[in-house]
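Researcher: Please predict.
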Amino acid sequence: MPALQLKEDTFETEVLKSDIPVLVDFWAEWCGPCKAIAPVVDELADELSGKVKITKLDVDSAQELAMKYNVMSIPTMMIFKSGEPVDQLVGALPKNQILEKINANL
């Protein structure tokens, strides 16, 4: 099950109003490191289904959201709980580091 593709108009419902933690992968089509970690993000979506919602947001089509959350470089992954960002990871990190960060926020 691949990560859920977000749009600006689904962000509030899927992320801010979610009753489980949400990881948002801020990415772009032209970003090499973003593409490199995409399979890992999809694996996590599969493995953590029901515990954490794994999502992706294209910064090119959602520039206002990227600016609102101060996403300066991509890939940036942000973890939201109860509608608030609680943690973030920047860069193409290995799966175990991403998983550690998610588990620390469950």
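Model: The mean pLDDT is 96.
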